[in-house]
Structure formats: structure tokens, C-alpha cells
Amino acid sequence: AAIREAVTSLILMLTPLAPHAAEELFSVVIGNEDGILANGARFPEFDEELARADEIEIAVQVNGRLRSRIYTAPDAPSAELEKLALADEKIIEYTSRGKIVKVITVPGRLVNIVVKE
Fold it and tell me: Which structural domains are found in the chain, ordered by start?
């Protein structure tokens, strides 16, 4: 049932671009001779909830060089990004060699840790 629904959705999305081919595919694959529009089929609707990312990748830099990546919610505040970055094992290795001077966060993009040796 899931495969049939997926194939039907693909054929429906093809309809505006190649209507004749979509009609043929619908009749052959689905096995319905009446056609797409005669069956009341509608173009699939966009669901923003399904398109939203559950978590995003944040680059973590030490002195401007990419050292690690962390994964977090897209709307995570700067304080949480900083906390996650400083808790990362790879970052601890790089920051233990010197003193952390500054932590720059760009929400949704990156965390840059400035370390002075």
C-alpha cells in the first residue's frame, strides 16, 4: 500500500510537466483506464510540518579552523550551542592546550572558539 501511494504521488507530480505520459503511467501502473483527472486525483499538497528539519548540523571551529560538527535543534539558542560545542570531545582536546579567549556563535550556522596558547 505504501509503494502504491508513493508511485501514485510521483505520477501526480509528473502530471503538470508531462500530462500525456502521466496519464499512460497511471493507466498502466495503477491499472485504471479512466485516467488521473477522471478519478478526482489532486496534486499532493505541501506540508510545512513535514519539510522542517528536526535537527541541523552546526560547524564548530577553533581559531577559525573547522574541528568538529554538532547536531542540534534548528532554533537552539546561542548559549546551548556554546555549551554543546565546549562539551564535544574533539573540541576539549583543542581547547585544553590554551585559554579560551572568546566564543562566537552564529545561531543555525557555526560556533567559533578563539583559543590563545
Answer: 2-45 (no CATH), 56-116 (3.10.20.590)
